[in-house]
Amino acid sequence: MTTPEPIGRRRWAIAEGYIPPGGTHADDPRFESHETACLLNANDRDAHVTITIYFKDREPAGPYRVTVAARRTLHLRFNDLEDPESIPHDTDYSSVFESDLPIVVQHTRLDSRQAALALLSTIAYS
Amino acid sequence: MTTPEPIGRRRWAIAEGYIPPGGTHADDPRFESHETACLLNANDRDAHVTITIYFKDREPAGPYRVTVAARRTLHLRFNDLEDPESIPHDTDYSSVFESDLPIVVQHTRLDSRQAALALLSTIAYS
Amino acid sequence: MTTPEPIGRRRWAIAEGYIPPGGTHADDPRFESHETACLLNANDRDAHVTITIYFKDREPAGPYRVTVAARRTLHLRFNDLEDPESIPHDTDYSSVFESDLPIVVQHTRLDSRQAALALLSTIAYS
Amino acid sequence: MTTPEPIGRRRWAIAEGYIPPGGTHADDPRFESHETACLLNANDRDAHVTITIYFKDREPAGPYRVTVAARRTLHLRFNDLEDPESIPHDTDYSSVFESDLPIVVQHTRLDSRQAALALLSTIAYS
Question: Whole-prediction pTM value?
Answer without folding.
Answer: 0.86
